[in-house]
Amino acid sequence: MDLSIIVGLVGAVSTLVSPVIALLVKEKRANRLLLAITSSRRKAIEGNWKLIFKMEIKGKDVPEEFSGTLTFEAGKKVVKGKIANDHFKRGLSVLQLKGDFIMRDSQTGI
């Protein structure tokens, strides 16, 4: 094989692989401070809840109330969820949630 072909192939492979590696390293670094969610905590977090929303609007004496659901799923380090509500005027809406538990520094509290 010609040297220029080999150089071209190495360059192409590097161009395609380097963003994937960068993304994996970024995710690993972002998750390094997160605490692992134990199975007992995962069982306590996961589930579905029915909610009653009470929205007070400035200038109105009577608050608006409407129902919704809250759903959580817990992974190894991240909790994902969604709030779905069916407002009688605005219709169905869904809010996606994502959170985690981080280690706190005992000296700074952060």
Q: Output the structural class.
A: alpha+beta
The number of helical runs is 2
Termini Cα gap: 57 Å
Task: Tell me the number of structural domains.
Answer: 2
Number of beta-strand segments: 4
Low-confidence stretches: none
Q: Based on CA inertia axes, which overall geometry fits? A: elongated
Architecture overview:
The protein has 110 residues and is an alpha+beta fold. The protein folds into 2 domains: 1-32; 34-110. The protein is 33% helix and 36% strand. The protein is built from 2 helices and 4 strands; from the N terminus they run ααββββ. The chain is elongated and about 80 Å long. The mean pLDDT is 81.
Topology:
Blueprint: H1 3-31, H2 39-45, E1 47-55, E2 64-74, E3 78-87, E4 91-100
Antiparallel strand pairs: 1-2, 2-3, 3-4
Describe this structure in a few short sentences.
This protein is an alpha+beta fold and 110 residues long.
Key words describing this protein structure:
2 helices, alpha+beta, single chain, 110 residues, elongated, 2 domains, four-stranded antiparallel beta sheet, 33% helix
